[in-house]
Structure formats: C-alpha cells, structure tokens
Amino acid sequence: MTRRYSPLDKLLGEVDHALRTANSRKNHGTRPNPAQVMTDADSLNSAEKQLSAGLMRVNHSGEVAAQALYKGQALMARNRDLWNHLQEAADEEIDHLAWCEERLEQLGSRPSRLAPLWYAGSYSIGVLAGLAGDKWSLGFIEETEKQVTAHLETHLDKLPENDSRSRTIIKKMREDEIEHAESAHNAGARDLPPPIKQAMTQVAKVMTKASFKI
Length: 214
What we know:
Blueprint: H1 7-22, H2 46-76, H3 80-106, H4 115-131, H5 134-158, H6 164-186, H7 194-213
Helix pairs in contact: 1-2, 1-4, 2-3, 2-4, 2-5, 2-7, 3-6, 4-5, 5-6
C-alpha cells in the first residue's frame, strides 16, 4: 500500500529537509567524492587555503540555495514528470553539498553561517516560480543552472593552481549543472524575461560576496 501523507506530514518533511540541508556535516551524498583519491591537502599555504575555502563556501551556499529552489518548485509542480525532474536534480545537488562540506573541512573551514537565510529565500523563490506554471518553472531551472555554471567557471580561474582537489570537485559540479540546464531546456523550458535574469544575477552577487566572508 502507498502511504498518503497529510499536509502536516508534508510540512514536517519540508522543515526536516531544510534543517538538514542548512546544517553543515549533515548531508551525505550517494556518489563518491571525485577528489577523494587526491593527496594535496597539505600543499597549500595559508593564503591559498583561505582563498580556496572562500570559494568553496560560496559553492556550498549555491548548493543550499539550489536545494531550496527545487524543493519549492516541486511543492507547486503540476506535472509528475516535472516533479521527478526536480527530485533527481535535487539528489545530485545533495552530492555537491556533501563534497563541498568535505573540502571545507579539509581546508580547516566551514560553510556560510548565512545558509539558513539562503535556504529560506530560495525556497520562497521556488514556490513563486512553481506558481507561474511548469514551463516557467523549467525556465527558471535552466537559467539558474546557466548562471551557476558561469560562477563555477570563474572559480576555476580563481583557484590556486595547486588546489587540484577543489578544482576536481568544481569540474564535476559544473558537468552536472550543464546537464540539468540541458534537461530543463529539452523538457520545454520557457526563456525568462531579461529583467528576471538580471534580478537573479544581482541576487547571486549578494550571496556570493556575503558567503565568501561569512
């Protein structure tokens, strides 16, 4: 028999997911860390570790936001295929969260203290995107993943040359984000209006600057 969840069950499930996502060292991926076999943990000097940690903290914040966005959109999804698409993407983002958390710990650092704020804001945006309709929701996924990919590419340029662990993780994350964007596009995503794209860019800049430091 398939269990039917009450509205309260669903609400508690959402709260539990939010707490686990925003709480560091509580996320466990299903895929192995692509950098787990590398041994360059001690080859970075203090300044290089600080730079790498700041960039990985930004990436972790982005994955927290992505989790919340997908959960908010899934809550409003009208189509079962879209719901499945969102859940699959969210599962891969959990892998990214776990990898970023592992790397931050290796660098002697921690995720952003603002993670709960990023989750709450992105969840609200996801709900609004879902209310606009499935095609617009897919369009939001496509644009989000495109912007995330662009951020990851800039991080690859900024990382210390000898930080091969962070670089390997980011390259795999970028590969997944490109796949998510293409999947959303092929599913019928609508192109978002330029003002919405620009607003998303500005919000991302605020999150990036804050997460790098806090």
